[in-house]
Amino acid sequence: MRPRGAGQNPMNPAMTDSSTPTRVASTGAPNYATGKRKTAVARVWVAPGTGTIVVNDRPVDEYFERETSRMIVRQSLDLLESVDKYDVTATVAGGGHSAQAEAMRHGIARALAAADLERRKTLKRAGYLTRDARQKERKKYGRPGARKRFQFSKR
């Protein structure tokens, strides 16, 4: 068995015997990234193409019924003015539709930034590369919710 890291990595053509991993510009191969929001996780593949977006094997317009969710999914592509230049394929799980849409936006932004480092500054300034860490607060014992309390009775 060869030591870890030795030799050519078949999953990453940028790795060679004597080099460290480097980012390669998009050569037609899809760029992969993971986007997250609340409990939703989106696995996103972005490849040069015609602008089709597929979510869980369904078109984005069919999967996300609300127009705002569709708009959120396309925000990172709209910012870079490259809606018709990339095909996006995603598998989304967990959370609700709004969280899934925001997880997809996060994943698309990360994949686009990995494809070309020049875009990173624009996407970062817009806030699309930042993982929104807000989660639902857990329910505490002795209370009906996370912070709500039962009605106080003096006697």
Provide an overview of this structure.
- The chain has a domain at 33-126: Ribosomal Protein S5, domain 2, CATH 3.30.230.10.
- Strands 1-2-5-3-4 form a 5-stranded mixed β-sheet.
- The chain has helices at residues 60-63, 67-79, 97-115, 120-126, and strands at residues 31-37, 40-48, 53-55, 58-59, 86-93.
- The radius of gyration is 20 Å and the shape is elongated.
- 28% of the residues lie in helices and 19% in strands.
- Strand 3 (53-55) and strand 4 form a beta hairpin.
- The model is unreliable at 7-11 and 15-24 (pLDDT under 50).
- It is α+β, with helices and mostly antiparallel strands.
- Helix 2 runs parallel beside helix 3 (97-115).
Task: List the defining traits of the structure above.
155 residues; alpha+beta; Ribosomal Protein S5, domain 2; 4 helices; 19% strand
Map the helices and strands.
Blueprint: E1 31-37, E2 40-48, E3 53-55, E4 58-59, H1 60-63, H2 67-79, E5 86-93, H3 97-115, H4 120-126
Parallel strand pairs: 3-5
Antiparallel strand pairs: 1-2, 2-5, 3-4
Low-confidence region ranges? 7-11, 15-24
CATH fold name of the domain at 33-126? Ribosomal Protein S5, domain 2
- How many strands, which pairing sense, and closed or not: the largest β-sheet? 5 strands, mixed
In total, how many beta strands? 5
Radius of gyration in whole Å, from Cα?
20 Å
Gap between N and C termini: 75 Å
The percentage of residues in β strands lies in: 15-25%
Percent helix, as a range, is 25-40%
